[in-house]
Amino acid sequence: MDYHQKLAEKLSILNERGNGVLIRMNYIKKSCADPKLRPAILTDKTKEPAIKYINKKFPNIDFRGNIVSVKKPLRNDSEKVSGELTDLFNFDLQAVNFDFTKNYLDLIVTYTSVIITLSRIEDKKALVGMFNCAHEMTNGSSDPSYPRLGQMFVEYEHPWKKLTEEFGPHTKSVTAALLSLRMLYPRRNLPAEQWRSAQLLSLLSAPAAMLDPACCDTMACEYLSMEVMERWIIIGFLLCHSSLNTNQATLELWKMALRSGLYLTLTRDEVLNIHKVSEDLFDNIKGYSKRVADIKECRDHVLVNSGAMHRERRQFLRGAMKELFKVLEDEPGLLGPKALFVFMALSFSRDEVLWLVRHSENMPKIKTPEDYVDNQMAELLFYMEKLSGLMRKYSHVVQRYHVQYLAQFDALVLNDTIQNMYVCPEEESVLLSSFVSVLSALSVKQVENKEEFDLRPLRLDWLRLQAYTSVNKAPLPLKDYPDLAKVMNMIQFHTRMVDSVEELLHETSDVSILCFYPRVFEKMFSQSSEEMTMKRYLMSFPSVCSHFSQCAHPLCPEEVSALEKRSLRLCVTFLEQIAKQTSGVVLEICAEQHNLNDELLPKHCAESISAARYRKQKKPPPKKGEVQKEKPGAESLRKDRTILTNMDKMHLMLTELCSSFSLCTDFAVFDHTVIPTEFLLSHLEMRLSEIIVRMANYNKTTQEITRPSDLLAGLRAYTANLHWLTSYINVDVARLVKSVLLQQTVPLDSHGGQTITTIYTNWFLEGLLRQASNSLIVHCPTMHCFVNQSTDIESTFRAEEFSDISELRALAELIGPYGMKFLSENLMWHITSQVTEIKKMVIENMDVLVQMKNNFDKPEEMANLKRRLTGGENILKRMTIIGVILSFRAMTQDCLKDILDKHCPYMMRSVESLRDFVSPEADIQVTLNVFELASAAGLTCNIDPALVAAIGSMQTDNTSMDEEYKLSCLLLVYIAVSLPTMALDPNSLYNREHGGHNNNIHCLATAINQLAAAMFTIQNKNIEQQLKEFLLMASSTLLQLGQNVERVESKNRESVYLLLHMIVEESPFLSQDMLESCFPYVLLRNAYREVYKSFVITLGNVHLNVTS
């Protein structure tokens, strides 16, 4: 025996390289067929004559005079493809000549698959021919590999004919190899009924033997893929078909394989139509008419029976896998002795998945297409993933068990077997002795110390030994020592349990072929997602996408990028669908709970109160045609528990969907880590944001909107039920809710959609404040809200229902400090637009105002100047609008303060202390920074920093600070001298119930104080001094009202007098002493007596007349 042939090493390398070449051939085929990937030379119109000539004359191409202008681009585009095709000659079946069954058959099948795939590349001649032409034009000679490659293309024009000729001399060895399956294949290819009767894969069928190690004489054959065996049989007998007519056993084996299905996988999604190929081949061979009849009979059998048989197998495997997983999950220690059961279960399930995939994609026309549809595939994939995960999780248990098994049992049995051998040459003896020594050296301490095991050299030596002992005239024929083969095969499996569990899991459970059947894969997911009982298993589909990286091969790196994109697309699609379903159910439950919670709101109790009142008064309630509504809680009363409500069904669906997330917390798809729950949180975040906005129910046309308190109640109902989700699945709901609510405090959410901050800001500006500026709505200081005026125009809403303290507190709770800041900025924009117009009016009347400022104590002069003054009413109107806006802002700030006091009282105390600590003498910028902090917390400040910033932004380079100061002073003059004109307006009457005037002029007090403080702060002037001058001038002009004999002008004089008192009361810079020094207090007292003269207070049924 020549031990230097290294047959085992060559066999391993050729099989590995053959798979790589096969994948490359498939990639070339796909690239040439795909318009996006097709080489440019094949799509260039100018190259068409050259391509036609090459295809016609190939391989003997005379490029002189026939092919021109192809030198540089042709070489660049075709060099790579031609180089890949040349690799075929590095993969040659004749390089090995041995009888080692499995690897020998693998090599035959791989070689045949490469040739068949190559024959399916339509542009191979054009690519190789053009490359050779370019090579010859560049280098002056033909490519060295071209003659052999060209000759091969010609010889394999009809691949099956050539292959059968090539394998003719190998018929005996191939047939012998295939006949070794005559016991194994029929035993594996049984219907589900026999599996069920034999209790296949069940650990509970023999409880007494549960701890016994699972072993047999053919360990590796037990989890050998059925598809692999069928490929061996079909392709092997196609190549060596003569044995079908001479050996009955081969005929039976071949017919059984033909009855298994219609297609076999060559590679990726390239399949072989076994009946068509066999029939086409045998039709052209004399004496094979019986075989053709056998093929047709087998095809008919497949069409009638195969789909149902595989459907029943999948049904059986679902139950068997579930039972096996539950037992092993409960007792993971059984993974040691029963590891073989896991790999058998995974292999059987994988075979059924792959069979269904390749037949679903190429489904024949049959009467029972439902046999090729499986809406329960999710469950099978789920338990495949679960069992694989269990093996990975407890790999240390499996490793520890088998290390002890190898050292304390296998080594001893092997040693005894070797001692009983009567012939053992030196080379074989060295190998066998090394096996015993390696196994004996294993110990549990190595496992405890977490040492890395590498028993691949031992397995390679066993492969070498099989190679040495399997050839003709071997010194040590392995067939004479079956006990040695049995022991070594068992040892090989046990060693793989120590260092190659992951590799074995890939071999038995890899379903990466699904990556190449995206349409089938997505259809399986869609069908499973429609079944209620399958929803808990849906996560298996995205999890399977983590297998796809395992199908990449180093010999075809170009394919990796496309595989990665497709894998991620499928994974994300599945996760998005699962998350969409789950979030839909969650939010539907929340919506139902929101409706129930809404029934408990105080606004719905009026009917119950009315009914109770009638009962108390013993009056019959008014008859109505409506059916009496059920009281809240009636939905919880059950007469029959078996009747499921809609809520019951939704909770059941939610339980099923959330169970699917338990498969894994995360998994890797190529270099990407995927966390399924993040997809759920993302969907919930997006949907919840939409729901919150939808709950606001804002109609821009009719200006209808939900009250903030109602929205807050609904939002609390949603969030309370979302927190309940944590009892189903481990997700951070608190983070979700915080994220969503925080997004609602800014103008746009993370998806660019409107938020309730924007909606309520727009509504209060356009709906409430716009009507307030027209005096249709009045600011009511006594009730701290806005109220509707009694007018002929019917309002679409009641202002007090949206602007009282409870509603504005709810608003502050909803949009928070950030939202309030956005609202404030929009309010300031409206104020600055009014200030701009006011400044224009001041500039127009500047000369008159300067004179009035200098002559305010001269009544006759003032009367003349007043006639020249224009726009007095307009300026008061604009100042009133500013006052209304600032009054609304003050109300929102107060409510924000109340909310923050409740949520963070300690922080609020610190901010208040800091605000109070700032002295008037401090640097103005420092003061404004502190006031900005205080204002953000809702605290009231002497100077409004937002107003200062807004007015400051109006200044341009064209105006100096002195000019601005002059305009500010004249503005106060303008307002002061225009105050008496308000007495002409009948709406200037002071409303004692509201605590303000009917035309909102009481808001002038706020406007004058805050606007003056802001303007003079920017100009760095004394605010108190300027307001004193304003108070003096305003008092003077109002006192002149009393001297006017025309009663028309002074009918609301007393109401206007009260403005002075309001201005002083609201100002932090003015005092009552200052007011009394320029305006008699007796006039104020008489004014209050006049407006409060006589009104009625109703106490129950008693009317009291109250006189001042």
Automatic annotation (TrEMBL):
<dbReference type="GO" id="GO:0016477">
    <property type="term" value="P:cell migration"/>
</dbReference>
<dbReference type="InterPro" id="IPR019137">
    <property type="entry name" value="Nck-associated_protein-1"/>
</dbReference>
<dbReference type="GO" id="GO:0031209">
    <property type="term" value="C:SCAR complex"/>
</dbReference>
<feature type="region of interest" description="Disordered">
    <location>
        <begin position="613"/>
        <end position="637"/>
    </location>
</feature>
<feature type="compositionally biased region" description="Basic and acidic residues">
    <location>
        <begin position="623"/>
        <end position="637"/>
    </location>
</feature>
<dbReference type="Pfam" id="PF09735">
    <property type="entry name" value="Nckap1"/>
</dbReference>
<dbReference type="GO" id="GO:0048812">
    <property type="term" value="P:neuron projection morphogenesis"/>
</dbReference>
<dbReference type="GO" id="GO:0030866">
    <property type="term" value="P:cortical actin cytoskeleton organization"/>
</dbReference>
<protein>
    <recommendedName>
        <fullName>NCK associated protein 1 like</fullName>
    </recommendedName>
</protein>
<feature type="compositionally biased region" description="Basic residues">
    <location>
        <begin position="613"/>
        <end position="622"/>
    </location>
</feature>
<dbReference type="GO" id="GO:0030031">
    <property type="term" value="P:cell projection assembly"/>
</dbReference>
